[in-house]
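New to this. Please check this protein:
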Amino acid sequence: MQQSNRNDQKGVKISVVIPAYNYAHILRRAAESVLLQLGGSAELIIIDDGSTDNTPAVIEALERDFSDCFRAVRQDNAGLAAVRNKGLDIAQGQYLIFLDADDEMLPGALAALNEHIDLRPDTQLVIGGHVSRYPDGREDEHLPDPLPPDAYTRVRNYLIERTLGVSNGACAMRKDIFSHGRYPERFRSAEDIPVFAQVFAHGVCTNLDHLLTRIYKHDDSMRHDLKAGLKVGDQLVGEIFDGGRLPAEMNEMRKLFAAQRYLSLFRTALAAGEDEKAKELYKQALSADWRAIFRTSYTRKALRLWVGMSG
């Protein structure tokens, strides 16, 4: 492993970590979006997860142009969860932002976060807004969802009701919240769900009504999400509920979450045009918890699917 130690700042409050794997063609956009607004209280770390493209050369060019402004680490390919855990280990900041290499931080984001943290130094999760950018150039703005005051409702709304959302790159997490668990490195997708669940369960959470990040959507994301989600399978339920991440009283959500997980994959399969797989996933949702039939938006889709197939 090679590491470039280019930032020896003291008093760093926020560490922005960019995991990079074969994103050489757009990595500079993400890096510059952070570098151009760095101050003494923030740092940037780029972790190259064993890229086989031109990523090392892009990082070298950034080091020439922005010397002493960031740190770069290269490691053997280990997956996104391992990269984020590496960021946890080496970050100097009290708060961490994990910015995907194909996204970008919006101007003024770090200043807004710094101001918010100064006003709410007790916060362990700051949820900001983001802009979704679609392949056709269309953009939608999303400000954070209202935060329920109690931990139980936050976790339920995040895991089951899906009315509480949070996006990497548009949130900052304080390091101490990871005492309840780190990113599960055996997962190659959905690794952030257990972490966000534990933050909502144990952390002081606050909203920041400021757009922090532009998140780029991709045409093939539905099929990719379905394939990755199926690989994780039931392991995600055990990771959330069996590893001490949540208080014992939240275990009653286990069956409901298992059903919701299958319903989410059901919807993804429909969007990807995988009708047979969608039927199988809906059956698995009902098997996990029969109450899933009362999730009417999914049930209507399932009925249309069956009627359409039978016809």
Q: What stands out?
A: The chain has eleven helices and ten strands. The first strand starts at residue 2 and ends at 4. Residues 1-9 have pLDDT under 50 and may be disordered. The chain has two domains: 2-219, 222-310.
